[in-house]
Sequence to fold (645 residues):
Amino acid sequence: MTAVLELNGISKAYGEDVALDALSLSLGQNEYMALLGPSGSGKSTLLRVIAGFEKPETGEVLLNGKPITNMPAHERGIGFVSQGFALFPHMTVFDNVAFGLRFREVNAVTNASEVERRVGDMLELVGLAELGDRAIGEISGGQKQRVALARTLVADPKVILLDEPLGALDANLRARMRGELRRIRKKLGISFMHVTGNEQEALAMGDRVAVLDTGRLAQISDPDTLFNRPASSRVARFLNCYNIFAGNERAAISGADSEATRDGEYCIRFDKIHVAPVSDVTDVGKASVIATYITSEYSGPSIMYFFKGADEKVLEVEYHLSHRKPEEFVAGAKYSLQWAVGDELIFDGSE
Amino acid sequence: MTNSSDIAKEEDRRTKRITLALLTPGTLWMLLFLIVPMLMMVYVSFWTQTTFTIVPTLTLKSWITFFSSDTYFGALLTTGRIWLTVLFLTIIIGYPVALFIGLFIKNKTIQTVVLVLCVIPFWTSFLIRVLAWRPMLGKEGAVNIVLEKIGLITHPIEMLLFTEFSVVIGMTQIYVVFMVGPIAFMLARIDQSLIEAARDLGANTWRIFRTIILPLSMPGVVVGAIFVSVMVLGEFATSGALSGRKVNLLGNIIVTQVGSLKWAFAAVVGVILTAVMAVVVAGLLRIVDLRKEL
Fold:
């Protein structure tokens, strides 16, 4: 895969706060990369550095092999869709999309019929062909998102940066826009970089997912690898579906396999755990930990059980109801949480 | 059934009573202190005026006097001219100041502090602010002395004070802040990301100003223009103090006519002044739909 965009050792600090710490990353041709990180991980700063709104202290940004680190934002050929959409409120949908074509300093399109054609095509692509004459105040959140995208796409950028593009939409619309974004990208064949704080969005959207942690790249891999084999317990924590606890000294892990019960930081997915009575002897090929049941929460397709481990940390167990039956547990009673050897990830040393 | 519809009716009557109770004081107030006096002013403008008395016999005499006299009709033209000049100057001077405060100062606290600094001159009385221009602009005033000292002029410039020029200077200085405030307010509300987006789309600074910033700040310009217009059109003190009674505005005429108990004629000028203001404000409001923008 040839890289469209390359970042080499980008660092940026705001006073004492390090936002980006010698970060390197490359975005392939025709790739959808999701950039996942909690707030404060530097993901928005990274996007602003790539877009050209911020200058990095060290490192360089390459677009198609050419350095663009000191190039002003509008000469880079990188489209930026900001979090709040930043649509011009006093213009119609059509005029918003046409803005770049008409008013860019370099290579502006002066031919009115060409503007009309290109804007028309783009509104068609994002499914807003009928709404060109509407004022920005007269369209819904999802439509605003499409206008913002169309406005950026119409200038034929080489790379599109999306800063939490779905954050302002409600859950229903978010799911629809995910599909829509993927469809649009496939059709245009350009590279997207999508910043998000939502792990499900990152897993659903990205061809690859880059996990950012305190200004550094914690892991970059395809969604499946990321989800099943996070590179560290911190990455596992961002995924929001792993129980993370220190074994074996503070929480005694029992089991026959010595390699599966060694000391370290354990990460076990919520849905890989089976709850059994304490009296149950841990089978060969399984490992277990003792925990006290607290409560449960029903959410339709699955049910969550909450336990308290030996180190007072909450452990969560998820039963997918399509292949497991809900069970009744006694609050305050101890249970044995079991998992198959090989389902756990053990990292040395705790943070 | 009957019971529930009775309750609904009772509820309805209650809402009506509350609406009436809330509307009455305001309506009465406006009626007594705005509508009635204005109708009275129109009525009095047709009364017959003799030297010392005024009788309610209807006549057009005061109206004819106004439009046939060069002095009085000229005052209308002067008022219009000074209003337009001051309005133009307050926009030209006020807009860049507002631009600096509203857009270039990012910190909200500093923004407020700078706006308050603009208002500090208003802590002294109106008269002092106006009269302070006399030692500045006079024949032996500060401006002339400085210009003479640096050798730009050999004789003092006399047209600086007691002319239309000094009136315009005085009014501009007093009213420019009423232009700065509303514009700065509108500019401060412009989302910084809009400007970034426009820049990312390739527009240069001038284009961004013309196509994004200026249109979005127009409501502020209109509100400022209404403030300045209403105040300048009704002015009489600045012109009285800085023109040596050579520049007569409609306001000055009302003051002298009322002073010599010529109520009917003062009413004529009052009606004309009110009409001019109404036209100006209505015209300004047509530029932008303030209800939509604010």
Observations:
- The domain at 71-293 of chain B is CATH 1.10.3720.10 (MetI-like fold).
- The longest helix of chain B spans residues 2-44.
- Chain B touches chain A through 17 residues (CB under 8 Å).
